[in-house]
């Protein structure tokens, strides 16, 4: 029997992905759970496993092409049926039965006639004419990144002569072609096309991650009523304890920063102030209080801001949190995050202090209720025991959804975090 496996909904609001690499080909036998294809999405690069054991009858989409959730991905010959019987089976309009996927949120459906995609070419709006016999274009070699850029700029990549190895089309080739095309259009319309004018503008295609960030920021600002509270805490004792255990942990090849202490303090404070660990269902008239404490960490990467999640922070020791922080940072920068690393966050921490900032107005990771910003430590004179002495201050910026949390609760929550940070030994024992 023939089945069409469609690109599944892999969660986190991702509705499309770019094919980075095929692991299988037509005629190849695969086992359930075996990786079929590597997909690059807005947030992660992930492998899609096979939901069935069978033979690959067809694959849909080429490397570099962007497909949407629900588009056909792989056709399976599940029971070895072929010939007229397979064609008859594939043509049935009935989409039942639906079978469970293996490790991916998705379905297997009996194929109808629309499940088979015709051969396509990357064409811009100026070249959407029917080709006559013998005039088919050559297929240009290009990286997935270059193909995505060409699609974003509405450029037919097959019109471009590549300057890379074996004629591969590079990003610079696409940018040059795009600029030349626009220079031609401007010249026809009588606009200034002098080199001086062109040098004042550089056009870059938005990456998938940057587009996702833009959508998320707009959604957050549109749906959440932002309120931000600022405070700072003297952390000399935290510095002393961290320096002590930093040396101990380093012998076990574990890097200890201040972030694990902030994570632990935040999780414990969330348990005492559950509205900060919730989300609002306004249409349903509900406030969803979450009894698990999964904290996302905003990580600055070359591709943009990613927010991987550490699960069950309240149950982890400072040592375990240090290990998790190091693992997640490395996976983020190497684009090795999986979907499990990005799901089910209940609160977020952003550490802009690591790049030099003190205070900021963090944007809530909607639909979460709050986000804590951690700034750069600075030395200031402080009063202790009626004397002015040098101290080290840690700035904190807490943004909340004011629809969910009132000002008094925000202050009490922030004070509780600072109370825990003032007693770092208790965090080590927790």
What descriptors fit this protein?
430 residues; alpha+beta; OB fold (Dihydrolipoamide Acetyltransferase, E2P); Chloramphenicol Acetyltransferase; six-stranded antiparallel β-sheet; globular
* Largest sheet descriptor: 8 strands, mixed
Number of domains: 3
Percent helix among the residues?
Answer: 25-40%
CATH structural fold name of the largest domain: Chloramphenicol Acetyltransferase
Mean pLDDT: 80
- Structural class of the secondary elements? alpha+beta
Strand content: 15-25%
- Going by CATH, the architecture of the largest domain would be 2-Layer Sandwich
Q: Please tell me how large the radius of gyration is.
A: 27 Å
CATH class of the largest domain: Alpha Beta
Whole-Å distance between the termini?
56 Å
Number of strands: 20
CATH superfamily of the largest domain: Chloramphenicol acetyltransferase-like domain
* Overall form: globular
Low-confidence stretches: 83-135
| Helix and strand pattern | EEEEEEEEHEEHHHHEHHEEEEEHEEEEHH
Descriptive account of the structure:
With 430 residues, the protein is an alpha+beta fold. The protein has 3 domains: 2-115, RNA polymerase II/Efflux pump adaptor protein, barrel-sandwich hybrid domain (OB fold (Dihydrolipoamide Acetyltransferase, E2P), Beta Barrel), CATH 2.40.50; 123-129 and 136-205, Dihydrolipoamide Transferase (Irregular); 209-429, 2-Layer Sandwich (Chloramphenicol Acetyltransferase). The protein is built from 10 helices and 20 strands. The strands form 4 sheets. Strands 11, 14, 15, 16, 17, 18, 19 and 20 form an 8-stranded mixed β-sheet that branches. A 6-stranded antiparallel β-sheet has the order 3-6-8-1-10-9, covered by helices on one side. Strands 5-4-2-7 form a 4-stranded antiparallel β-sheet, with no helix packed on it. It is globular and about 80 Å long. It starts with a strand and ends with a helix.
């Amino acid at each position: 029997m023939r089945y069409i496996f469609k690109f599944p909904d892999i969660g986190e609001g991702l509705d499309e992905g770019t094919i980075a690499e095929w692991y299988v080909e037509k005629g190849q036998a695969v086992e359930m759970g075996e990786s079929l294809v590597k997909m690059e999405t807005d947030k992660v690069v992930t492998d899609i496993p096979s939901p069935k054991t069978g033979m690959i009858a067809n694959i849909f989409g080429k490397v570099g092409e962007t497909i949407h959730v629900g588009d056909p991905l792989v056709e399976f010959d599940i029971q070895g049926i072929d010939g007229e019987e397979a064609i008859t089976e594939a043509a049935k309009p009935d989409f039942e039965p639906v079978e469970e996927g293996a490790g991916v949120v998705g379905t297997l459906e009996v194929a109808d006639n629309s499940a088979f995609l015709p051969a396509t070419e990357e064409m811009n709006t100026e070249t959407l004419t029917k080709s006559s016999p013998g005039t088919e274009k050559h297929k240009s070699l290009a990286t997935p990144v270059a193909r995505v850029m060409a699609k974003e700029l509405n450029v037919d990549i097959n019109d471009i002569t590549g300057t890379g190895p074996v004629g591969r089309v590079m990003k610079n080739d696409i940018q040059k072609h795009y600029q030349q095309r626009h220079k031609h259009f401007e010249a026809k319309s009588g606009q200034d096309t002098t080199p001086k004018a062109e040098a004042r503008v550089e056009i870059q295609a938005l990456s998938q991650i940057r587009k996702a960030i833009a959508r998320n920021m707009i959604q957050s600002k549109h749906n959440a009523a932002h309120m931000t509270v600022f405070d700072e805490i003297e952390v000399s004792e935290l510095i002393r304890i961290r320096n002590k255990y930093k040396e101990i942990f380093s012998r076990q090849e574990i890097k200890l920063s201040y972030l694990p202490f902030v994570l632990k303090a935040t999780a414990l404070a969330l348990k005492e102030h559950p509205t900060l660990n919730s989300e609002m269902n306004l249409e349903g008239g509900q406030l969803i209080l979450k009894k698990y404490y999964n904290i996302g960490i905003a990580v600055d990467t070359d591709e943009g801001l990613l927010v991987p999640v550490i699960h069950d922070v309240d149950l982890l020791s400072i040592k375990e949190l240090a290990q998790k922080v190091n693992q997640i940072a490395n996976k983020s920068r190497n684009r090795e995050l999986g979907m499990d690393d990005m799901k089910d966050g209940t609160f977020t921490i952003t550490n802009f202090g690591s790049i030099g900032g003190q205070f900021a107005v963090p944007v809530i990771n909607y639909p979460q209720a709050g986000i804590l910003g951690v700034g750069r430590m600075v030395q200031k004179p402080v009063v202790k025991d009626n004397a002015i002495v040098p101290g080290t201050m840690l700035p904190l910026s807490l943004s909340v959804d004011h629809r969910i949390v009132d000002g008094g609760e925000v202050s009490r929550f922030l004070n509780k975090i600072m109370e825990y940070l003032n007693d770092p030994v208790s965090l080590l024992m927790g």
